[in-house]
Amino acid sequence: MIQKKYIQFIALVVLSMIVTTSCERDVSDDAVLATFPSNADVYSDNPEGLTDEFFISFNPVDGANPEGFGTDQNEAYMGTSSIRLDIPAPNDPDGGFIGGIFKDRGEGRNLTEYDALTFWVKASRTALFDEVGFGFDFELDKYTVARAGIPLSTDWRKVTIPIPDPSKLVQEKGMFFFSTGTSSTDGVGFTIWIDEIRFENLGTIAQPQPRILNGQNVSQQGFLNVPFQLTGLTQTFNVETGRNVRVNAAPSFFDFASSNPGVATVDEFGLVSVIGVGEVTISASLDGVGAQGSLSLNVEGGFNFAPVPTRPEENVVSIFSDAYQDIPVSRYNSFFEPFQNTLGGVVPVGPESIISYSDLNFVGIVFNDVTFPSEAVQPVNAANLTHLHVDINVQEAIQANDRLLLQLTNYGASETVGSFLISGNQLVEDQWVSFDIPLLDFSGLGDKNRIGLLLFNSENGPDNPTISNLFLDNIYFYTE
Amino acid sequence: MKINKDSKLNMVKYPPIFLLILICVLSCDLDETQEVVTLDNLVWADEFDTDGAPNPEHWNFEIGDGTKQGIPGWGNNELQYYTDRPQNVKVENGVLLITARQESFEGNNYTSARLTTQNLFEQKYGRYEARIKVPYGKGYWPAFWLLGNDCDVNPWPACGEIDIMEYLGDEPTSVFSTIHGPQYSGAESISKEFSLENGRFDTDFHVYGMEWSPNRINFYVDDVLYHSLTPEDVDEETNGTGNWIFNDRAFYIILNVAVGGNLPGNPNSETVFPQSMVVDYVRVYN
Questions:
Q1: What is the ipTM metric for this complex?
Q2: A207 with B138: Cβ contact below 8 A
Q3: Over the stretch A128-164, which tens digit does the pLDDT of each residue have?
Q4: Could you point out which of A3, A379, A478, B109 has its C-alpha 20 to 30 Å from the C-alpha of B156?
Q5: How far apart (Å, rounded) are the C-alpha atoms in residues A82 and A42?
Q6: Class level of CATH domain B39-285
Q7: Contacting residues of B for A207, CB less than 8 Å apart
Q8: pTM metric for this prediction
């Protein structure tokens, strides 16, 4: 059937070319490009025009479970069969989630006449389908679309995944994509059935509301040669039910604009390159509709990063560093009430991040199960660790009385606090200074097996803060 | 409850819908002789061609939240305060814009506008037609409707109401038409919905019309007559308790955008403000 449809389609194209050639002397070579088949069907009772492997799993090395995918001859929304996904528990030896793609077996399809991918789905219990979409072909992944958190019912329901801008999809190979685990079911495995997957022209996909940066107008310092990846790219449509449906849309669906190309440019993948000093605003549109959200950068020069840590990972327990995997931390700014004034916290600097505090009087980094019970994380057992490392960069002129008191709290049977004082003459304005402080030098610290708070205090007496603005990076315990 | 189709118009524009309707017509009713409209003598119109405030010879404003009229929330717990400010109502680029806004105003959280032809144009019978694009989103409740001109002496619903087009913003593919009278008002009114199979009412203009003659009211959208009412229908719907009150008085035209209340429900976080009901024209034929 499919072959026949293709032949009919090609015959139509040939016919139209003959008609064209009869009145135009030359047909441009370009004219034949728009001839990719527009077959809408992806799966009905069988895969429709997909590759022989049908389901191409994400890499099992990343935890994907290729064993839970199959078809079911006893369940179908229409016809005789459906796709069946047996979602594994997180600790399944074959992998803790199921995810992968269906790919067109040819050179791709022309989907420009459709406005949505639709399918019917049900599950063995109510749950959330983590992500479903299309546009992933494991080649370019250029026009990816994913809808997250789709509610599953124990009865068949139709799901609509709007196409952000169909005119882009002249040759799409990524016909279907899904990925789900058991995060919505507290780790309990369940079954999903999917049927009648196809592209449709519903005519009810309307009122586009594209966004970048999740609709926020982000304004921050930019730095020469430190790129910025635009994220939070979505397209939202109002659909037939009157509800809004939001999908994550690949950057290539958007047209990006720079207000000052001498300062920053954006490529089609949403990567902002900072190339000059000055101010710039990056905005975007999708299919002619302006996107909510923008990025404004003030670029004064390059960023002076802290020295890259060199200690081997196995000797390190990292609180905050791009060089290591950090332990869970509940707060990088404690916002202790009522006496803390300190603002700020983690800020991205291109692909990396630092901690930036302003209005400092004191501030804690919280990683325990006592201070904020609802945010409990495990404190650090530093019994076998010897040092605390921290890089400090003061963002103001150093004054005579400047000081920074570092305090570690151990939440043992009794709480003990150890203190280490850094004086202003050990710090340099706008320069990173690295400290490797022996834990033994934190005077007053008793046990080290439940360290869960690192406090920075710049006060020289009550209500008398000294240093107000500083950057921190590479905060980690280690053993020498 | 008959569905009929005038085959003269726009066959090409909606071929799948036409086919569907034709199939439906053939399957449920073989009477294809009825035409959508019969009255073609234009007697009153506003084409909204002059920028600025709406023509005062055609339109009055109803101001407020209904409190002054003795029906706070206009009887439906609606949330808007009607004004005649240009922010809420103006003619621009050949269309009338009735704009609902989310703003604090006179103790209300939304503003909008309601225009009537009361005392300016009132008549019995005729064909009433408007070309309109509606807003979308939970809480929007735009309408094009008629009210009997003697509600002062025969309080509603005795004076009658003919709703040519009502639409709820969270049901973008449907509109409905309704008549209200004694024993068939409010939730008991006689109403019918018209839905688009592959389209919606907030993305394009559509023509909403009603043809009214002695003992008959027909409602249509574009070229589709979908709701036809006679005294027999009122009799049937009310088990003999209601009367046909549409041969007895002149009616006047109302255009408004309500926000929230009993029927549409209140706006939610997805509802976009401001939005307008856009009216290309209102025409009356005899």
A1: 0.82
A2: no
A3: 999 999 999 999 999 999 999 999 999 999 999 999 9
A4: B109
A5: 12
A6: mainly beta
A7: 136, 202-203, 272
A8: 0.76
